[in-house]
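Hi everyone,

Forwarding the result from last night's run.
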Amino acid sequence: MENDSLNKVNGTNSKKHMSKDELSEYIISAYDSGETMMDIAETVGRSKIYVSKIIHQVYDDEEIKVRQYNKLRGKNKLDFSKYKSTSGIYRVSFVENKRNGNDYWSYQYYENGKLRRIVSVNLYKLKVIVLDKGLDWIEFTDEARDLVLKYRETYDESSLERQNKTGFFRVTKRKTKTKQGFTWAYSFKENNQLNFVSSVNISALKAKVLARGWKWMELTDEAKRLVEENSKKTSRQELGLLE
C-alpha cells in the first residue's frame, strides 16, 4: 500500500491516509525532530499512551528521560545561546584554522549524550545540512540573516552529493515490514514543523514530493537511473493490470 504524508499544515488526517507501519514511522520521525509526545498525539489523532508505546519500542526509559529533560530546559538553553552566541546563529560558531587558513563554520549539538559537529566553509550550505537533519536553525539577528543570504550566492547545490548516502536530497531508507524490507522516506523541518512523506516506490515518492511543491534533487547518476528504471517498471506493471 502506498504511504501518504501526514502534514499538520494542510490538516491531513493520519487515520484516513496512513497505514499502521507508516503511522509508527511518522511518530518516531516527529519524536526525533524534537516534538513532544503530547504534540505528536494531537497531530496524529491518537492518545498519548498510544504514541508512548510506539516510542518505547525504539527508545529505552533512560533515553526518553534524558530527551524529556532536555526539552524542558530547552527555552533556557535557547536564551543562554542567544546571549553567548558570537555568530548570531543558534549553535553556530566561526572557526579560524590557523594551521592552513581554511576557516569554516561549525554547528554543535548533542545526540544521545554525545557532542556532534557539522561543519562547512559555506554558511548557507551548513544551514541546508542542519535543516535536512531535522535540527533547529535560528538566526538571532538581521546581520546573521544577511550573512546567510550572502553565502547563498556562492552555494553549490551539487556539493550536497557528499552529504547523502541515498543519492537523493532529504531522502533516507527506513526499515519496514514491507516485501522489500524498507521504504523511501523524504523529510525536512521548516518553521518548527516536520514535513514527511514516504513510499516503497522511489518514483512514486518523487511524484508525491513534487505534488506538494517540495524540492526534489537526484544528486547522483545512480539515483537518476534508479528513478528512471523504477518508473518504467511501475508503468509496465500498470499496463499488465490493464491487459
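Strands lie at 92-95, 104-111, 114-120, 171-175, 182-190, 193-199.

Cheers,
N.
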